[in-house]
Design brief:
Length: 454
């Protein structure tokens, strides 16, 4: 086994801000001397381990983990922040229509610090433990919940037994991504608003940024309608899914999971235009927006007709060197790709309006990007994880083959030029009728080629 690279010169813990800066320095140096071919390389699992069960709230244990961020690292220990989503949820039928349920409406989403002892070269012995759980609370220390933020008559979330709509909560969040900053605070991205939330070390909400015009009444937290109003059109259950910060903490990158919905849903979903938002956390406002187009950029129809996979999703992002990002793209059929993404040269679409003669009424409806003179972010395939994803699913299910469908990969952290960490969202195993359920598991992948020089 190859030991995971660390960001240290001596046997002492390195804070996340310094680790991120060191990673950028390493990556830049590697880029300068890399002569690797431009095509994607392979990857393998360097080591993996299950995250043990641990009590959270409302009688719920560890599960629903939806992101990863490095907290500290030594030669044989990595501490990683992760975050739960809104809690156990499933689906049922109400009046012949599919409806989503909240199994534990009083569940409190939380930050979770996981300590992984991987043993250096003896990485096969990796074990994980839960070091800290930080529930999310209001300034008055009332708990946040995973309940819907506002009532939704068209797509209500219901109680699994009574089938009555779950009461809305202005403090409701469906948390999906986390970024720790050097000052000890965190930024969180969630799906309901969608919104970006700044929280303290103790999990107290300091401010919440929501789409303009959607500020909740009765909220006990400071809400600012600073995000583009269009984001309120987010597809059901498809708000912000990924969040990353530059090493200096001056810019956040937030990405939606799927294209926003509009009156021409079929056109929009086929085009695959997903919004990538650059946000200034100090000023508390967006500073740029770019189109991330789903699908294979080598497809001849990619720019002009769209080449998005059926129901493609963007599930996690991380920062690389030189202003680039690492993005995890997958679908429900098993596809999983890691792309190196560059916003440099992409059109800034903040405030974009369609030309008078254009057929497209929204950014999502633009099928021919070339004709519209819209340059998306550039994408280069780093690694195809599709086959590996099936193997990882079997491992999470405790057998030689998957028993609970495709693995939901929802957390991503860069550990070094050739190593990334990934965690799965197991939905708290509420869908797993074949015990034992799917585990929450952490994998460290070793890439054949460095992430830089692409």
């Amino acid at each position: 086994m190859t030991a995971v690279p660390t960001f240290r010169a001596a046997r002492r813990t390195v804070p996340v801000a310094w680790a991120a800066a060191a990673a950028a320095i390493i990556a830049t140096a590697m880029a300068e001397r890399s002569e690797a071919a431009d095509g994607p390389g392979g990857c393998r699992v360097a080591w993996s381990c299950s995250i043990p069960d641990h009590p959270l709230s409302a009688g719920v244990g560890i599960g629903g983990l939806s992101d990863l961020a490095v907290s500290a690292t030594t030669s044989d220990v990595i501490s990683l922040w992760t975050i739960t989503d809104r809690g156990p949820n499933g689906t049922t039928k109400v009046d012949g229509r599919s409806a989503r349920t909240l199994v534990a409406p009083e569940f409190v989403p939380a930050l979770v610090l996981v300590r992984v002892e991987h043993g250096g070269s003896q990485a096969a012995r990796a074990t994980a433990s839960v070091e800290k759980v930080v529930p999310l609370v209001t300034p008055k220390h009332g708990p946040l919940s995973g309940r819907p933020r506002v009532p939704d008559a068209e797509s209500p979330i219901v109680h699994p037994e009574s089938l009555e709509p779950v009461a809305a909560d202005p403090h409701g969040v469906d948390t999906e991504a986390i970024v720790p900053l050097g000052d000890g605070t965190f930024w969180i991205a969630e799906e309901y608003g969608p919104s970006l939330i700044h929280v303290s070390q103790e999990g107290e909400v300091l401010e919440r940024h929501v789409p303009a015009g959607t500020e909740a009444t009765g909220a006990g937290v400071a809400e600012r309608g600073s995000l583009p109003a269009a984001y309120a059109r987010r597809r059901d259950n498809r708000g912000f899914e990924g969040l990353a910060a530059t090493p200096d903490g001056r810019r956040l990158w937030a990405i939606l999971q799927s294209p926003l919905d509009d009156e021409k849903k079929k056109v929009s979903r086929k085009a695959g235009n997903v919004r990538l938002l650059a946000f200034d956390p100090r000023a508390g406002r967006p500073v740029a927006e770019h189109v991330y187009r789903l699908g294979n950029p080598a497809d001849p129809d990619y720019l002009t007709k769209g080449a998005a996979p059926d129901d493609g999703k963007l599930c996690a992002i991380a920062v690389l060197a030189a202003g680039r990002l690492l993005v995890l793209e997958q679908d429900d059929d098993g596809l999983a790709h890691l792309y190196a993404v560059s916003p440099a040269g992409a059109t800034d679409t903040l405030g974009w309006r369609p030309p008078a003669a254009a057929e497209a009424e929204t950014l999502e409806q633009v099928v021919d990007l070339r004709a519209a003179r819209l340059a998306p972010v550039t994408k280069k395939l780093v690694a195809d994880l599709t086959e590996l994803r099936a193997t990882m699913a079997a491992e999470a299910d405790g057998g030689s083959r998957p028993r609970h469908g495709p693995l939901k990969l929802e957390g991503l952290a860069v550990l070094g030029p050739r190593h990334v960490a990934i965690v799965n969202d197991n939905d708290f195993s509420v869908h797993d009728r074949d015990p034992p359920g799917r585990a929450s598991r952490l994998w460290v992948l070793e890439l054949d080629r460095p992430l830089t020089g692409r």
